Automatic annotation (TrEMBL), chain A:
SMART domains: HAMP. Pfam families: HAMP (PF00672), HATPase_c (PF02518), His_kinase (PF06580). It comes from Lysinibacillus contaminans. The lineage of its organism: Bacteria, Bacillati, Bacillota, Bacilli, Bacillales. PANTHER family: SENSOR HISTIDINE KINASE YPDA. Gene3D superfamilies: HAMP domain in histidine kinase, Histidine kinase-like ATPase, C-terminal domain, PAS domain. InterPro entries: Bact_2-comp_sensor_kinase, HAMP_dom, HATPase_C_sf, HATPase_dom, Sig_transdc_His_kin_internal. SUPFAM superfamilies: ATPase domain of HSP90 chaperone/DNA topoisomerase II/histidine kinase, HAMP domain-like. This is HAMP domain-containing protein.
Length: 596, 383
């Protein structure tokens, strides 16, 4: 199945190593880095989340203390017996005495609230018993007429607590230039008579807050604002937003503490005594700026290290895997029978040792094979040689008998020829140190043999040897022809018919073609098939009567290779034709090889 | 590498699908297994998308929540705040001073939603007051606010009340320190005594005979004041002579009679100090009736309402007092403090009263400084 390839254990060693390196090095580092970073960011957020509300609380406290100071100053009114007396006496005999009182009270307001370091007070008012005393730095407008104002804030107006803060949207007063302010309100209670004398208002410029808040509101990216319970923004570090509504506020989960939305960290602290809430927001990325820088650096260096790691792991994996892969390749080659392998000798590690061992092993195998091959070859050669060099005893007997007849018949000349021929044959047989002989000599031997046989069979046998003169000196193995002729003489005779044996040697396309033809009895198809099988089979030696043929065939194959087998054509009753093909000069190369 | 991995899963998936295809037909339940496997990655992706996209955009994660100490406190206060029942017991009911105090008490009771058990001794007698306190204990009030007529006789009763878990607050006149939880004093006794002496000396040019009309000899506060008046006199005014200290029993008739007697007994008398609210008006009336206006100076503790006419016609020179309304209010306010376990500290600013002093060891409150009422300012005050 194809998917087996994708199982890890089926991966190549190189890929396994690569994946392992990556899994072992990159993943843990990346994970570790990620966890460290996110934990750091979280802890920074938590810290800031705890720290900012405390700061805001401090700001709250500071502000409350400041406001308390203003209230204290407002309480000084009680010690002003003059003013208290005026406030307790709302009825006048005439205008001038009323003007006198107004003058006194307004003088007091100016002196008490407008002088010296009280720079943030922009106006002070006392509404009492249908009278309004006022002293302001800035002109102001109000939605009400003076009379209404008095009615509204005058004696009858009872605050839930003695001291209270009005935010701008809760009053109708508007100072020149829309100056943002808060109104500190204090009920003037006549403690002794147990009744309300009126209300004291002090308008405070919001700038007094800025000073307090600047300690918290340091960063440019941070926003800080103050809202009342109705989401009205009393103060905002972005001045344009003062007086608007904080629409998001309803969704804030808590107002005391810190919470996070998207990438903004919010903190809040509610005033204890008053109705405001301080809120602070800062983009998280601003808090983690340093961490982000570190993160970016880390990421860059991480990538660098990773690529380096991958690069080196590739190198390393290749270093390990490549020689092995080459080894595998070469092994496969060797498996196919090609021992001609090359393994570089440059590694000194296990792979190198393996390579060396393998090479050595191959060499040994090769040597062993060669050795065995040669031994076998020599053995066979010896066997064959032994066989070929035998002069058939029957032949000797027959020949000698023939000679005996001839001597008896007094055919001395013929005897001399016979004996010469026989002597030459024996000499050829004995002088068999040279395995290869020129064609000429082999043909001579065949001629000698045939002449002896002719002398024996007389008219029953005729023969003819034809040879291309240029082939005379060409070399071929010894005793190739004799067994073929023997074969013909043994099997081909038809009673009452002259046996014609013809030997033709021609050249064709670099091949010497020797044809031994007879007009004898021929062979049955079965016999021919059997013979052909014998020729193809490995066993050269058999004790069959076709021994001569197989012997020749075996030697041809031994000398020139399997494609140079004997060809036998035979038709029953017509004759047999045996064809030998021998490469002209070609044999010498192969012979050289054998000697290795 | 990543591409490889993706390829890997693709191929693997395809292969598995093929491999198991024939099994599907036989075992339908395996089919689902395969499908699950096949869709696993898609499902995972979907899940991630869901988590990241389905969450509301305006999600706030709380990082830190400050302890809401203040809120808890107010909650507690609200829980404790119930309908308290306070027995308010003055020395005597039918004189303007205590009526003024009662006005302040009512104001506070209304503000704090307190049920007042108001029972008044018909006479300034210790036994009557004791009975009233006993009655209050039986009614199982939450607190008793009492102006003690006789410290000795009342203290054991108050002790019993305390043992029953009733908060005891004395005001105007104190009981034994151990028998009450808090004493709301109007002014510092030493200050007041010395001030009264100074006022008289100013009117008589620091010479001549004078007499003191005290409320009663059993009242701790009156005795204290008398003591400090005498201390001041002995220290600074050798040319003056204290002829007699007499008691009025906080009874206007008796006071008038006593004053008449003093004027008759000491013809060369230059001044009279009254240290309870009935004293000075009675003395002024007597001075006026005996045509000694301008001859005998009258100073002392009394309310503006009682003294207004005498101050205007010159039969009395200075009246000194605190606001009894304020005292009433403060008493109830502080009783409320005790009942709700609200701590009281020195220089505390009490709503609608102002700053008060608190002597922790003696558990004694000093409401403030005395006010002098003269012809000029007496009309500002309505008590």
């Amino acid at each position: 199945m194809n998917f087996n390839r994708w199982r890890f254990r089926n991966f190549s060693l190189r890929n396994k190593l690569l994946i392992s390196y990556i899994v072992i090095t990159i993943l843990p580092t990346a994970l570790l880095g990620y966890i460290a970073y996110s934990q750091y960011v979280l802890s920074v957020e938590r810290q800031v989340g705890m720290y900012v509300p405390r700061l805001l609380n401090q700001a709250n406290n500071n502000l409350e203390r400041q406001i308390d100071q203003y209230y204290d100053e407002m309480s000084q009114l009680y010690s002003q017996t003059d003013v208290m007396t005026i406030l307790r006496n709302p009825s006048y005999q005439n205008v001038s005495s009323m003007r006198q009182d107004i003058h006194k009270v307004e003088n007091y307001l100016a002196g008490a609230f407008m002088e010296g370091s009280r720079e943030y007070i922009i106006g002070a008012f006392i509404a009492s018993n249908n009278r309004l005393f006022e002293y302001t730095r800035l002109t102001y407008t109000s939605g009400y007429s003076t009379k209404d104002k008095i009615g509204f804030y005058g004696q009858s107006y009872i605050l839930p607590t003695e001291e209270q803060i009005f935010f701008p949207h809760e009053t109708a007063i508007q100072f020149n230039g829309d100056k943002p302010y808060v109104l500190l309100v204090k009920q003037i209670i006549d403690y002794e008579n147990r009744n309300n004398l009126g209300t004291l208002f002090v308008a405070l410029d919001l700038e007094f807050m800025q000073k307090t808040l600047s300690t918290v509101d340091e960063q440019d990216e941070a926003n800080m604002w103050m809202v009342d319970s109705k989401q009205y923004i009393i103060y905002h570090s972005n001045a344009r937003l003062i007086g608007t509504i904080d629409k998001e506020m309803k969704q804030y989960p808590i107002l005391n503490g810190s919470f996070q939305s998207d990438s903004i960290l919010y903190s809040g602290a509610q005033s204890v005594h008053n109705r405001w809430t301080f809120l602070h927001s800062i983009p998280v990325e601003h808090l983690t700026e340093e961490a982000d820088l570190v993160k970016n650096l880390t990421v860059i260096s991480f990538i660098a290290i990773i690529s380096l790691a991958i690069f080196s792991s590739i190198l390393l994996a290749w270093g390990v895997a490549k020689p092995i892969q080459r080894l595998v390749k070469e092994m496969k080659k060797a498996e196919k029978g090609n021992f001609d392998i090359y393994l570089p000798d440059k590694y000194n590690n296990e792979v190198g040792t393996l390579s060396k061992a393998f090479t050595k092993m191959l060499h040994e195998i090769e040597e062993l094979i060669d050795e065995k091959y040669e031994i076998e070859l020599k053995q066979k050669e010896a066997e064959l040689y032994a066989l070929q060099s035998q002069i058939n005893p029957h032949f000797m007997y027959n020949t000698l008998e023939n000679i005996a007849f001839m001597v008896e018949g007094g055919e001395q000349e013929l005897v001399v020829d016979m004996v010469t021929n026989l002597g030459r044959m024996l000499r050829y047989s004995l002088g068999n140190k040279d395995q290869l002989v020129p064609l000429q000599k082999e043909l001579r031997h065949a001629d000698d043999y045939l002449m002896i046989q002719k002398a024996r069979f007389e008219e029953s046998l005729t023969y003819m040897i034809q040879v291309d003169p240029i082939l005379k000196d060409k070399i071929l193995p010894k005793f190739l022809l004799q067994p073929l002729i023997e074969n013909a003489l043994e099997h081909a005779f038809i009673v009452g018919q002259v046996l014609k044996i013809q030997i033709n040697v021609t050249s064709e396309k670099g091949l010497m073609i020797i044809v031994v033809e007879d007009n004898g009895i021929g062979m049955e198809q079965n016999r021919l098939t059997f013979l052909e099988q014998q020729l193809v089979s490995e066993h050269i030696i058999n004790k069959d009567d076709s021994f001569g043929l197989t012997n020749v065939n075996g030697r041809l194959v031994l000398h020139y290779g399997s494609e140079y087998r004997l060809e036998i054509n035979s038709l029953l009753g017509i004759g047999t034709k045996i064809i030998l093909k021998i490469p002209i000069d070609g044999g010498s190369d192969q012979q050289n090889e054998w000697e290795h | 590498m990543l591409a490889n991995f993706i390829e890997l899963f693709k191929k693997r998936d395809g292969a598995t699908t093929l491999a198991y295809h024939h099994i599907w037909l036989e075992n339908p339940q395996i089919k689902w297994g395969i499908i699950m496997r096949k869709q696993y990655w898609i499902l995972l992706l979907l899940a991630i998308c869901m988590i990241s996209s389905c969450a509301p955009k305006e999600s706030y994660t709380i990082l830190y929540e400050a302890k809401k100490v203040e809120e808890e406190q107010t909650l507690k206060e609200q829980e404790i705040k119930k309908h308290f029942r306070i027995a308010y017991i003055p020395k005597v009911g039918n004189i303007p001073y205590f009526e003024s105090v009662y006005e302040g008490v009512l104001e506070a009771a209304k503000q704090f939603d307190i049920e007042l058990i108001y029972d008044v001794p018909t006479e300034a007698k210790a036994e009557i007051q004791m009975q009233i306190v006993e009655k209050a204990i039986q009614k199982e009030v939450d607190a008793i606010a009492v102006s003690v007529i006789d410290s000795k006789s009342l203290s054991p009763v108050l002790q019993r009340a305390r043992e029953k878990g009733i908060k005891v607050v004395t005001w105007d006149a104190d009981a034994e320190m151990s028998t009450r939880d808090l004493f709301v004093d109007m002014v510092d006794a030493e200050n007041l005594g010395r001030h009264l002496m100074d006022q008289l000396a100013l009117q008589t040019n620091e010479v001549g005979e004078f007499a003191i009309m005290t409320g009663s000899f059993s009242a701790n506060n009156h005795n204290e004041w008398v003591k400090w008046i005498q201390t001041q006199w002995k220290e600074y005014y050798p040319n003056m002579k204290l002829v007699e200290v007499v008691s009025t029993n906080d009874d206007p008739q008796k006071a008038y009679a006593v004053a008449k007697t003093l004027l008759a007994n000491y013809p060369s008398l230059k001044g009279i100090i009254g240290n309870s609210s009935v004293g000075p008006p009675a003395a002024a009336q007597a001075v006026k009736d005996t045509q000694k206006v301008g001859e005998v100076a009258v100073v002392g503790l009394s309310t503006p309402n009682l003294m207004r006419s005498y101050l205007h016609d010159g039969s009395a020179q200075v009246a000194t007092l605190w606001s009894p309304k304020k005292l009433g209010y403060l008493t109830i306010a502080l009783t409320q403090y005790l009942l709700t376990n609200k701590p009281i500290t020195d220089n505390d600013v009490i709503q609608r009263v102002g700053a008060i002093r608190f002597e922790e060891q003696q558990r004694r409150i000093i409401m403030g400084e005395p006010i002098d009422f003269t012809k000029e300012n007496v009309d500002q005050y309505e008590f």
